[in-house]
Amino acid sequence: MEEHDGIEESSVRLVGSGGGSGGGSDSRWVDGSELDSDSPPWSVLEENEGRIGYGSMRRRLAKRPRRVDSFDVEAMEIAGAHGHHSKDQTLWHTIALAFQTLGVVYGDLGTSPLYVFADVFSKVEIESEVDVLGALSLVMYTIALLPLAKYVFVVLKANDNGEGGTFALYSLICRYANVNMLPNRQAADEQISSFRLKLPTPELERALKIKEALERRSTLKTLLLLFVLMGTSMIIGDGILTPAISVMSAVSGLKGEIEGFGTSAVVFIAIVMLVGLFSIQQFGTGKVGFMFAPALALWFFSLGSIGIYNLLKHDITVLRAFNPAYIYLFFKKNSTDAWSALGGCVLCITGAEAMFADLGHFSVRAIQIAFTCIVFPCLLLAYMGQAAYLMKYPASADRIFYDSVPGIAEVGVMIVSTSLVTLVMLLIWKTNIFLALCFPLVFGSIELIYLSAVLTKIKEGGWLPLVFATCFLCVMYTWNYGSVLKYQSEVRETISMDFMLELGSTLGTVRVPGIGLLYNELVQGIPSIFGQFLLSLPAIHSTIVFVCIKYVPVPVVPQEERFLFRRVCPKDYHMFRCVARYGYKDVRKEDHQAFEQLLVESLEKFLRREAQDLALESNWNDSEFDSVSVRSRDSGAPGGDGNEDLRTPLMHDRRLVEEAGTSASEEAAAALPSSVMSVDDEDPSLEYELSALREAIESGFTYMLAHSDVKAKKNSFFFKKLVINYFYAFMRRNCRAGAAVMRVPHMNIIEVGMTNMV
User: Fold this and answer.
1) Fewer CB in a 10 Å sphere around the end CB: N or C, the chain?
2) How confident is the model at residue 55, as a pLDDT?
3) What is the percent of the chain with per-residue pLDDT over 70, rounded to a whole number?
4) CA 79 to chain centre
5) What domain range is 693 assigned to?
6) How many domains does the chain have?
């Protein structure tokens, strides 16, 4: 590859201590773009040796110096240490996690027996055993098909490196197909250890066609994003109401046992309990799980025990409900009322989505063990026991009824999960097309049936979670829409490299000692806000680092893989780009001083490796020229014929080929002059740059931030102006700035105002 005299942005990647023999692929930035990252470290060279006396073409393998491109902070020290993100535990640890899940994951499922039959039989009167057995059969098969068959055995496997939920599925899809609305993906992101990118093979044309269709059509990208945001919004809307419903349903059971205990008392006690429950959330999932797990374990044990007692005492013949024919008889007898009763039946799976959404706190095996061994059998026994009791005392069905249970958002979330998991099956798992389509046909059909039934509960209070979900959907999509337009505007307005070269290394102003960290969202190119700083400030720092905080579609980015460094402009400009990568579960809690120290250490390693790489390439070229000259002199030596002279270098090259696979790094070191090994001592430009960097460090850091407003262009539609100029602007004004997140002192901050017209 040709260099363009330092005009392009060059970059360096620190590889593992194994250095030259690492197995990872490299990428290279030229003029802000990325070239093919799959070029091999060995290349086939053809030399016309007739010019040096051999008279024929010779093919040989030459060790090409590794072009180290993107920099990972401490990758040299820990290469391969984070090759995968797993949750491997011992058996006892898994059992302990399974015990904790009872207190965190299964609270809603565990309290569902309080109100399921009460709601079902508020729509259908108990007139015969068909009503009880049909309702019980519906509940049993609903739990068996959706939480057990769908979530435990299929959906939990579609996790994103151990993380679950709607956004985790979307992140997983974004890694395998470039469907992210923000166009800031880089080839270097695929080298993150938790990325695990395995693109569909060319043989599987179906997966490739789906991937290409998603990447090519912006409409599909938008629809996929809206679908994910809708599912996430419904989770939030459902989560707002579910705790209150569960607590109040539990407390309402006291109304029939304590004389004078009315609705006002139920509401008051429920509020006190909810305040107490939410106040302890700050202590973390682990402590909350250990605190509530014993109580929930006792609760499930009680459910199972009471169920067995009711079965044996009242009517064990309810076991006939395992025959799904009673579902048919139930609908045949009650017709429209039975359809309405499905809205109450769906309450038995309230909280099933939590098994997938809370996966990041536990493990797949722990959640599977807890559900199959404790939750599922105890719930079945509880419902069978209630049915046995109702067979004998049908008039008691409304005793635990709580009138305002809306479960609509829950079914909507399940439909979203079914659709996304189907896409994962087709695109990533590359499942057989028949099996992949069976998943949405079976589970999607069941969920759509339940959705049509629960729509009747909109007037009974089901509208409330939908209103919440709609509000959250509008907020999230407005933020995404405005952010994409802002990013596109910044890309269009980047400063050209020709203009930077015209300014010269002084940047048209005075360079004073110090390091300026200019925060922006661009992963390549020089942001236009830098021009505003040059116009507004009387001087600029001797070292400039463009810092980009970038979120990649992985749960967590290891600290040692956090940063990517590149050089911007020629060496004497002392300008660099640092891309700080975070996963969607990473929390930016680092202190600004720790961030500065890590950044400086990373920059020094970048400079040393860059100098070593350039020296490696330069000395290799020199050694190639020297070896050719030696062979040309040897060819004129007396003794032997021309054919023997021709065979000698060929045999030598053959040995090089045979030894190439044993130790690439050792061969590279042996083949090069010893001057390459001591590049730090003999490269004056490196020493000068390091000394200039140390001088800048002593002068301190300055955080250069853009206080930017975003406004719609004058010729935009009225709705776009309304969304951007008011709603999106309001959200930007009320979001925490980067300086607040990193706790940067105000005296270290310089802000310049700028307006982006989108």
Assistant:
1) N
2) 34
3) 76
4) 22
5) 489-615+686-757
6) 2
For residue 513, give the H/E element and its range. strand 510-520
| Whether residues 555 and 413 fall in one domain | no
pLDDT higher than threshold 70 for residue 77: no
Same domain, 495 and 412: no
Cα atoms found within 13 Å of the Cα of residue 659, Cβ hemisphere only? 14
Q: What mean pLDDT do residues 379-402 have?
A: 80
**Spatial distance between the Cα atoms of 745 and 418, rounded to a whole number of angstroms:** 48
The residues, ordered by sequence, that sit 6+ positions from 614 with a Cβ below 8 Å of its Cβ are none
Tell me, yes or no, whether 507 and 360 share the same domain: no
Cα(598)–Cα(151) distance, rounded to whole angstroms?
A: 42
Q: Are residues 403 and 540 in the same domain?
A: no
DSSP string computed for 317-385: GGGGGGSTHHHHHHHHHHHHHHHHHHHHHGGGGTTTTHHHHTGGGS-HHHHHHHIIIIIHHHHHHHHHH
Q: What is the CA radius of gyration of the chain?
A: 33
451 and 550 together in one domain:
no
What does 629-686 look like in DSSP terms, one character per residue? HHHHHHTTSSSS-HHHHHHHHHHHHHHHHHHTTT-HHHHHHHHS-GGGGGHHHH-HHH
β-pair type (510-520, 539-551): parallel
Q: What is the pTM of this model?
A: 0.70
Per-residue confidence at 682, pLDDT binned at 50, 70, 90? Answer: low
Please name the helix (run of DSSP H) or strand (run of DSSP E) that holds residue 706, with its range, or none.
strand 701-711
Residues 586-598, mean pLDDT to the nearest whole number = 78
Burial 540-577 (b: 16+ CB within 10 A, else e): bbbbbbbbbbbbbbbbbbbebbbbbbbbbbbbebbbbb
Residues 352 and 417 in one domain: yes
Please indicate, yes or no, if residue 18 is contained in any of the structural domains. Answer: no
Q: Coil, helix or strand for 457?
A: helix
pLDDT digits (tens, 9 = 90+) for 523-574: 888 999 998 899 888 999 999 999 988 888 888 888 888 888 889 888 889 9
For residues 650 and 655, what is the distance between their CA atoms, to the nearest angstrom?
9
Read off the tokens for 594. Answer: 């720790």
Q: Is residue 24 part of a domain?
A: no
**Structural domain contains residue 157:** yes
Closest CA to 689 of 598, 578, 611: 611
The tokens for 16 are 């593992």
Q: Would you say residue 624 lies in a domain? A: no
Cα distance between residue 655 and residue 627, in whole Å: 16
Strongest mean pLDDT among 169-183, 608-622, 640-654: 169-183
Q: Say yes or no: 396 and 523 in one domain.
A: no
Q: At what angle do helices 325-345 and 445-454 cross, to 10 degrees?
A: 60
Q: Are residues 546 and 436 both part of a single domain?
A: no
